[in-house]
Amino acid sequence: MRALAALALWALLSPFALLAADSRGPLNSHLPSWVTLGAQVRYRAESTSRSYLLERYRLDVELRPAAWLGLVGQWQDSRAIHYPHPDAAMKDRADIRQAYVRLGSENGWWDIKAGRQRMAFGSERVIGAGEWGNTARAFDAVRVAIHHGDDRVDIFSSAVVVNGTDTWDHHREGNNLHGLYASFGSWLAGNKVEPYLLLRSGLGHGWTYGLRIAGAAGSHWSYELESLGQRNRDWAATAQLKRHFRDRLWQPALLGEANYASAHLDQLLPTNHGIYGIADQIGRRNTKNLRGGIWLHPEKRLTVKVEGHSFWLADPRAGVYAFNGVLTVPGVAGGARHADVGPEFDLLADFRVSSHTSLGAQHGHLYPGRFLRERGDGNGRTFCAVFVEFHL
After folding, report:
1. Would you list the domain boundaries of the chain?
2. Fold designation for 35-391
3. Which of 10, 125, 151, 200 has the most crowded Cβ, counting Cβ within 10 A?
4. Mean pLDDT across 373-392
5. What pTM did the predictor assign?
């Protein structure tokens, strides 16, 4: 009933969304300039070992009583339909996802955000919001940003919020992340140079230091390079290269990527869906991964991606970790005979119907390699999803 009611409401609002002259959107066309409202609805049908429907509703409000002061809130309701016992990654009923005070301005030299908020840096391989997830991720944090032009430095102290299916969300005491993340866009034209230093205290205590560089290399190439280190010589690295053919039919782009992460790496709080396959069976930790693919644009609003991955254990004595860092297949004390985890092939499509509506579909399959056949259940994993998203 909620889904039908939301769709009916959207049908009523969509004509106003298309006709509204106010650039702030139809919900704000008759409101004072210091008030901004927003709404999002997403439905996603998924099929793995079972089929189910995920629903996510969001309402946003921002009050700006002065240029230097802002109050931001986001209410979220996430549900899982036809899933027997959904956990907090799928279900989080009627809760506050964001609620923070902002001092200063993003358009000025500085701003401070204090309260529950979304945080994401770089390509989200280290810290991300996990928006693909039905409940997503938020932080209770104080974040100070210094910025000018294409350069900014963020200094923050935070604790990740733990979602509860039927209780108020709260951060976990002792699971804290503090850090400095800089992004300099003025050093190299068309590129970002991003050094960072992070400290995880309490659970998984330790330092992470890294450098990410990404951007354009001429008119036809783009790239991403990242390397990070942690205690006990744990480290990870990524190298990605894209070749763009913008003057060809469907404007194809060829993607090549290599990843490595040691066996005891703390992968922190990333957004891994898609980066290590959409089946979400493989995370960054203890992984060697080659990724290749082609991205196509048959129509300017349509993106189609065909990608393949090959996964191996970085250390044959350690096991396989999922996208969320959970150990799914234990390692072998003396070292596994085979480090081949297996290949995965993915097909993704996203279509932007309008500025307020998006459609998408994904299909991926992980084929078990020799390690999974010998140490796991020997079965592959298939993931399928179709989704529609509305926002005002």
Report:
1. 35-391
2. Porin (2.40.160)
3. 125
4. 91
5. 0.89
